[in-house]
Every structure is written in structure tokens, then in C-alpha cells.
Write a structure and sequence with these properties.
By secondary structure, this protein is mainly β. The strands form eight sheets. Strands 32, 33, 35, 40, 41, 42 and 44 form a seven-stranded antiparallel beta sheet that branches. Strands 6, 8, 9, 22, 23 and 25 form a six-stranded antiparallel beta sheet that branches. Strands 12, 14, 15, 17, 18 and 20 form a six-stranded antiparallel beta sheet that branches. Strand 40 and strand 41 form a beta hairpin. The longest helix has 4 residues. The radius of gyration is 29 Å and the shape is globular. The two termini are 45 Å apart.
């Protein structure tokens, strides 16, 4: 009995191991052993996947030739290292509600209490916003520095929560006129002309209790009477004039859609705008566009006829102005800030493993910048890990890029191979799904399918022996050669050209030259507005599957994706074999040295096949589309 690992990709659970010998390029005098390890999460495309190691086996112990060495810092200037037990001049803002977190008083040495094991950091310390768990929020920002290199390299891990368009990292009110003095009255609401009904008592509001992210005093229907969540009644403001186009305000508390728990804008006594909470104590910015009521008299009314859990609302800081309020983000991000603007941003990938990210910052050389880490998230993976910010003239590649992956797509997992197949071939079979969203896919009686059985061989590459994969030769029996479409070599002008062939169960064999194009390839399972894009980006030397506009991709936030793999051109050309099968695409690049496998869920009848080129003219050197028999029973 022998142990192997941890090695290379270490996040998540290792499972479904598979160990077998293969002859390198068919030479029986050169046998190497392949160890396949499936893992979830932590794969190169996120979530589930499989990696492999090439090495030797003596009957007891496996020794890997392809385990990545421990990496060192990139050459350059360190602008953020945390190895002397201090933040080195970085400014931390901990959560007022949880003063010990999220950053603590000093960098973490690694894993903190209650956290799964943190890996991938370098040196004695790192930034870890799990102090106090996922709940605390805050920011930490570096001193200003001069951007004096082409790249800013750093290690990042933790939650995958980007800042979305229209959101703010802080809690800044919109500019404008503060209605009702922000509820910071010296007396009670009734002293200032508010009307209360039901359980609400004048002496209990405005309140200083309840509702995180409140700016000052607030109206809180939980505190407005003695019955807490079971308080019922209304709280109505004095009249005011609508002299601008927006009312932005902070609102938290319960979520109801039945009108029993809501903030209302009354015009002529009629609710013309309403808002409710999100079953959270966090107040966040809401906005009402009131431009159509400009110049009219209005009131604010809090309606709380809800009881039980989350039977309350909290309202604060109403601003009448020309600019809409921006919601506060729930991000966990690393940002580079120049002249007050975020110019680069990154997140973790929902793992406790830190990996390299490299920002191309050439355009900012000579500028002053800061690095700002934002943890605005209180939920699952609501924390951030970061370490070793280095300005360098070379790009640090993610460690994931250095590992050997069975497949670079989202949906190739739990692979196993078969012994004693005809002619001594090694045939591998994988589950076409991902536990990130496997229980939410839009199917009713099944969840995922099996990928095509693949023959795997070892072939010599500049990096050493590596796997090459191809669909088993039995796939040839499914070809409908009588309906094969073949195109002659021709240029692909910028844009999309639909081919005079269609189908949702086809094999496509194509060879391209990039020409002047910034990207090029094929669109499959299309219907004129949606399609799955399969192509290549010469500047990054990566083949990709883009399923962000492939039909039904909104059923789970982790599904829509652009999955890509490093692929070197061979004599300036790219060879692709693609299997399209109604709800999946399997791509074999450069005769199977790299593969990408993804599920897709196109609209009914989406069968068009197109060529595309962007940013210039590409060339298709050869193209064959062969329909496949759809069933054998």
C-alpha cells in the first residue's frame, strides 16, 4: 500500500483514481504509467474535472514525472507581501458589527479557525478575510505606488463574487437632498409630523438598533412596538414636494410580494412606487424613478402587516436627487485603482487554494495606483484570500495552466478506463456534467450523460509524454457519408457565414489558418440569434467553447461560461474535430492533444452551422461536416 499526493491541483476531493500503463508512441520498450485523479471542486474550468500524472509504478509505489515544482515569486518589485506579521502600511477597515473581522489585526499565517485548509500561498503570511467566518465585511487598501512594470502578478483565492455593473463597493448615498434629515431627529417621529397606526409607538422610532449598513438613525418596524416581528400598522411621513427625478434609500428586512410588507411612495394617497426587503438585516440601496410625478406632493408610508420571521422593514437615508442610487455590491474582489477608478478586478474561484493572476498594466505605467481588496459578502464563500503582489515585466501563469488535465471544459468528470479492450487499447469514459450545476440542468428524467468513449495514448511532446485522445473508431459506423458536406479552402471575411448544411448530431472536421483575425471558428446549434461558438484566439493561443449565448444558459449562475485551453498551432494551422450531439459539444484540438467538453441546451430546432471571423480575415483550409446516425435502436 502506498500514498500519492497531494500534488498539482489539490482543491476539493480526490476520487475515482485510475492507474494504467501506456507505451509512448506505441514503443513497447518505453512504457510509462498514467495516474488519473478526478477532483471536485477545483478543476481548471471550475467545479468538477480530472487531472493526470505521468510517471513510473514499481508494483507498490507510483512516482510522478509531472508533479509541478514549488513556485517562487516572479522576478520584480514586491508591492504587497505579508510575511513579517504586519500589513506593511496597508489600511484595514474591519466590520463595525464584527470588529475582529474580516481582516483581523495582522495578516493570517494560513488557515484560520473554522476554515477549510488554505493552500497555495507563499511565505509566512497572507491576507485572509475569514477572520470571524464569512459574515464580517470590510476593505483593505495598499499605500500608493508607481506602476513601473508591464504586469501586476498576485495570488488570489476565496469567493467568486465579482462586482457587477451598476454596483458600488462602498455604501455611498447618491447626491441630492436628504429627506427628513435622514431620520436623525432630536425627538420622535410624531414630533416631526409623522403619523403612526397600529402597534407602532412614537417613542421607539427613529431607532438606532437593527439594520446593518444603516448610516444613522432609521425607521425599524421591528423596534417600532413591543411585538418585534409581529408588530403591525403603518408609519406615514409628512408631505414633501417631488423636485427631482429619483429617490434613493437604504432598505432591509423581510421580503413579501403580497403588499403586506413594503415601503411606499404615495401621490394623491395612492401607492405609485413600492419596495420590499430581501430577508436580510443588511440595508441596501433601492431607487425609485419619480420623474413622471415631478412637482407633485408625496408622502412615504411604511406598511407592515406581516408577522412571523422577517416580518419587519428597516428604512434609512432617503435622498431626492438627479442620480439613481447604486446598490452596494456583494463582491469579494481584488482591485487596482487609478485616479479613483477601478481599472482591473479579480476574484477567487470558490476555493481555499490561491493561484496566480496576472494583470496587464502596461497602459498605466508611470501612474500612481493602489490595490484595494473588498469583502462585501456575508454568505457562502463570502471571503477573500490574497498574497504577494509583484510588479514584473513577465506574466505569472496560473498554476492550473501547468497541470495536466484530461479535459479543459466544464463537463468531463469521474472518468474511468477499461482493461482488456480489443487490440490492447485503453478506452476511457467520463460523465458529462459538473456538480457546480448538475442538479439544476434543464432536464426532467436525467442529469447529464456520458461523453463519447475515448481511446487514450501517450505521445512525446516538448514537455514529455502526454495523453492524446480520440473518439473510438466505432464512431465511424455512425457516419452518414452519403450526406457529407465538404467545403473548399477559402477565406472567412469578418462576420458570420451560415453553411448550406445543418444538423444537431454531426461530426465536423476543420483546419484553419488564423490570418489577420483576432478570433475565428464555427458556430453550431444555432438559430440566427443564439449559437454555441467554438473557436481560437491567436493572441492568447487558446481554443475555446463559448456557451454564454447557447440557448438556455440562465438556469444556474455557474453554467454560462467561456471554457478554453492552451493550444499551439502546428505549422501555423489549427485542426479541430468536433462532435455535436443535441445537448453537447466535444472538441478535439490538434489531433486530441487538448480536448474541451461542454453541455449546452439550445432552443428547439437550433441546427444551423456557421463559420465566423472577428477582427480580420481567417482562412478555412478544409472543412467536412458529416451527419451522424441519431440512434441505433
Amino acid at each position: 500500500m502506498d500514498d500519492f499526493g497531494p500534488a498539482n491541483a489539490q482543491e476539493g476531493i480526490w476520487e475515482c483514481p485510475d492507474l494504467f500503463p501506456l507505451a509512448v508512441d506505441g514503443n513497447p520498450a518505453n512504457i510509462k504509467w498514467v495516474l488519473v485523479v478526478n477532483l471536485n471542486p477545483g478543476s481548471v474550468a471550475g467545479g468538477s474535472g480530472g487531472q493526470y500524472f505521468v510517471g513510473n509504478f514499481d508494483g507498490t509505489s507510483f512516482t510522478s514525472d509531472t508533479t509541478d515544482p514549488v513556485d517562487a515569486l516572479p522576478t520584480g518589485t514586491v508591492v504587497g507581501g505579508f510575511n513579517n506579521a504586519t500589513y506593511n502600511g496597508w489600511t484595514t477597515q474591519n466590520d463595525p458589527a464584527n470588529p475582529a473581522g474580516p481582516w483581523g489585526t495582522a495578516p493570517a499565517s494560513g488557515t484560520v479557525p473554522g476554515q477549510n485548509q488554505v493552500t497555495g500561498h507563499i511565505g509566512a503570511g497572507l491576507i485572509n478575510s475569514f477572520e470571524g467566518g464569512d459574515t464580517p465585511v470590510g476593505t483593505v487598501e495598499s499605500p500608493s505606488f508607481t506602476v513601473g512594470a508591464d504586469y501586476l502578478n498576485f495570488l488570489v483565492g476565496g469567493g467568486r463574487h465579482p462586482q457587477l455593473p451598476g454596483e458600488q463597493s462602498g455604501n455611498v448615498p447618491p447626491p441630492g437632498y436628504l429627506l427628513f434629515d435622514g431620520f436623525d431627529y432630536p425627538g420622535t417621529l410624531t414630533d416631526s409630523g409623522w403619523q403612526l397606526t397600529g402597534d407602532f409607538q412614537a417613542a421607539r422610532n427613529p431607532s438606532t438598533a437593527g439594520g446593518e449598513f444603516a448610516i444613522g438613525k432609521r425607521i425599524n418596524t421591528f423596534e417600532g412596538g413591543t411585538n418585534a416581528d409581529d408588530n403591525v400598522g403603518t408609519i406615514t411621513s409628512p408631505e414633501f414636494y417631488l423636485t427631482n427625478n429619483n429617490i434613493g434609500f437604504l432598505l432591509g428586512g423581510g421580503n413579501r410580494t403580497d403588499g403586506q410588507l413594503q415601503a411606499e411612495l404615495l401621490v394623491d394617497g395612492i401607492p405609485v412606487r413600492t419596495a420590499t426587503g430581501s430577508n436580510s438585516g443588511d440595508l441596501n440601496w433601492k431607487n425609485w424613478d419619480v420623474s413622471q410625478y415631478f412637482g407633485q406632493i408625496a408622502r412615504i408610508r411604511m406598511v407592515d402587516n406581516a408577522t412571523g420571521p422577517w416580518g419587519h422593514l428597516t428604512l434609512d437615508n432617503m435622498v431626492l436627487g438627479s442620480v439613481p442610487a447604486e446598490p452596494r455590491s456583494t463582491e469579494t474582489t481584488v482591485n487596482m485603482v487609478v485616479n479613483g477608478q477601478t481599472v482591473r478586478t479579480a476574484t477567487g474561484t470558490d476555493t481555499e487554494h490561491l493561484d496566480w493572476t496576472a494583470w496587464d498594466v502596461k497602459e498605466f505605467r508611470g501612474s500612481q495606483a493602489t490595490i484595494r481588496l473588498v469583502d462585501n459578502n456575508r454568505n457562502g464563500w463570502g471571503h477573500l484570500l490574497a498574497d504577494e503582489f509583484v510588479l514584473s515585466d513577465t506574466e505569472a501563469l496560473p498554476r492550473m495552466e501547468e497541470h495536466d488535465w484530461l479535459d479543459w471544459g466544464k463537463d468531463y468528470y469521474a472518468t474511468v478506463s477499461f482493461n482488456n479492450t480489443p487490440d490492447g487499447k485503453r478506452v476511457m469514459l467520463g460523465w458529462m456534467n459538473n456538480w457546480d450545476y448538475g442538479q439544476a440542468t434543464p432536464t426532467t428524467t436525467w442529469r447529464g450523460t456520458m461523453a463519447l468513449p475515448r481511446e487514450v495514448v501517450l505521445t512525446q511532446t516538448p514537455k514529455g509524454p502526454r495523453l492524446r485522445q480520440k473518439a473510438v473508431t466505432q464512431m465511424d459506423t455512425l457516419k452518414n457519408t452519403a450526406a457529407t458536406y465538404t467545403a473548399q479552402a477559402h477565406d472567412i471575411q469578418p462576420g458570420t457565414v451560415t453553411l448550406p448544411v445543418s444538423g444537431d448530431v454531426v461530426q465536423i472536421d476543420a483546419e484553419f489558418s488564423p490570418g489577420s483575425a483576432s478570433s475565428f471558428g464555427l458556430k453550431v446549434l444555432g438559430n440566427g440569434t443564439e449559437a454555441t461558438r467554438i473557436g481560437y484566439t491567436p493572441s492568447t493561443r487558446r481554443a475555446f467553447i463559448d456557451r454564454t449565448n447557447s440557448g438556455n444558459e440562465g438556469f444556474h449562475p455557474a453554467f454560462a461560461s467561456v471554457d478554453d485551453a492552451p493550444v499551439q498551432l502546428a505549422n501555423g494551422r489549427l485542426r479541430l474535430r468536433i462532435y455535436v450531439d443535441r445537448a453537447s459539444v466535444e472538441v478535439f484540438a490538434q489531433d486530441g492533444l487538448a480536448t474541451l467538453t461542454d453541455q449546452v441546451f439550445p432552443a428547439a430546432g437550433a441546427q444551423s452551422i456557421s463559420l465566423f471571423s472577428e477582427g480580420g480575415t481567417a482562412r478555412v483550409e478544409s472543412l467536412t461536416v458529416t451527419p451522424l446516425i441519431k440512434a441505433m435502436w
